[in-house]
């Protein structure tokens, strides 16, 4: 789990067990891979309208809920026009 | 059957004796596959080669449910043990 | 432990990880730990138009427990070595 160190202070995307996608700056993490994000937002995807960003602020996400942590390329991410993207939300994990 | 002739005393022996043979694997999520078994561990994590996977996709219709089958092939595959329901050795006929 | 070692020998190789939410991610295997958590570099998601969620993601950390399959580069897997190592590990397990 030590490999999360490289993500501290970086803008990251978390994908959760239920399919939710949350972006934010990783402020910290612990051994159970609980993660604290600052300036975080949930990105809600739908086929009807563009991606909606819901501000969440400082957020603690429980490690068990996290299935994927991705480092965002900030220039690439800012270049994306979220309002033009239509996509189904990611499906939840099914064991 | 005589234990000494088969060398099978516990379930994992059956899998061990199937190494380098084609096995049938049934998985969660209406999936099955066959492949040549190269490695396994106590979690039933598997490494298989020359894999053919079959996914059964059940769609509920008005009258009856229809089953569509999707197949795909993969060269070398790690299968996580928590998805494994059964491993069956090759048929010895 | 055996499978962990196999993954370690495959670092810097290209693999495709399929998750239990049907997402498939191809990338260069950078590291793996005892839980089979996986770090991938230079990733692309299969069917990106349907899954644009990770468009701007360059590298990622995947929780081992949500992996369904990992497609491995066959040319970098020594199957004979694997079978021998598996037999050896099976023996130490039963002798306990």
UniProtKB/TrEMBL annotation, chain A:
Among the record's GO biological process terms, what is one? Answer: mRNA splicing, via spliceosome
Mention any one GO cellular component term assigned to this protein in its UniProt record. U4/U6 x U5 tri-snRNP complex
**Gene Ontology MF terms:** mRNA binding
Please give the chief subcellular localization of this protein.
nucleus
Query: Pfam families this protein is in?
Result: LSM (PF01423)
Task: Using the record's annotation, list all stretches that form the Sm domain.
Answer: 1-75
Has keyword RNA-binding?
yes
**Which compartments does it reside in?**
Nucleus
Function statement: Plays role in pre-mRNA splicing as component of the U4/U6-U5 tri-snRNP complex that is involved in spliceosome assembly, and as component of the precatalytic spliceosome (spliceosome B complex). The heptameric LSM2-8 complex binds specifically to the 3'-terminal U-tract of U6 snRNA.
Binding partners and assembly: LSm subunits form a heteromer with a doughnut shape.
Q: What is this protein called?
A: LSM2-LSM8 complex subunit LSM8
Q: Which organism is it from?
A: Rhodocollybia butyracea
Query: What is this protein's gene name?
Result: LSM8
UniProtKB/TrEMBL annotation, chain B:
UniProt keyword annotations, A-Z: mRNA processing, mRNA splicing, Nucleus, Ribonucleoprotein, RNA-binding, Spliceosome
CDD domains linked to this entry: LSm3
A single cellular component GO annotation = spliceosomal complex
Gene Ontology annotations of biological process type: mRNA splicing, via spliceosome
Q: Which residues form the Sm domain?
A: 10-93
Query: Gene3D superfamilies annotated for this entry?
Result: 2.30.30.100
Source taxon at top rank: Eukaryota
Cell location: Nucleus
GO terms, molecular function:
RNA binding
- Asked if Transmembrane helix is a keyword of the record, the answer is no
Enumerate the PANTHER family for this protein: U6 SNRNA-ASSOCIATED SM-LIKE PROTEIN LSM3
Its assembly, as annotated, is: LSm subunits form a heteromer with a doughnut shape.
Tell me which family the UniProt entry assigns to this protein.
Answer: Belongs to the snRNP Sm proteins family.
Its biological purpose: Binds specifically to the 3'-terminal U-tract of U6 snRNA.
Descriptive protein name = LSM complex subunit LSM3
Automatic annotation (TrEMBL), chain C:
Q: Which GO terms describe its cellular component?
A: catalytic step 2 spliceosome; Lsm1-7-Pat1 complex; P-body; precatalytic spliceosome; U4/U6 x U5 tri-snRNP complex; U6 snRNP
Listed A to Z, the keywords are: mRNA processing, mRNA splicing, Nucleus, Ribonucleoprotein, RNA-binding, Spliceosome
Q: Does the keyword RNA-binding apply?
A: yes
Which SMART domains does the protein's record reference?
Answer: Sm (SM00651)
Which terms does the UniProt entry file under GO BP?
mRNA splicing, via spliceosome
GO MF terms, alphabetically ordered: RNA binding
Q: Which InterPro entries match?
A: LSM_dom_sf, Sm, Sm_dom_euk/arc, U6_snRNA_Lsm2
What region holds the Sm domain? 2-76
**Cellular compartment(s):** Nucleus
Kindly report the protein's main subcellular placement as a broad class.
nucleus
Q: What does this protein do?
A: Component of LSm protein complexes, which are involved in RNA processing and may function in a chaperone-like manner.
Q: Please give the family membership noted in the entry.
A: Belongs to the snRNP Sm proteins family.
Query: What protein name is recorded for this chain?
Result: LSM complex subunit LSm2
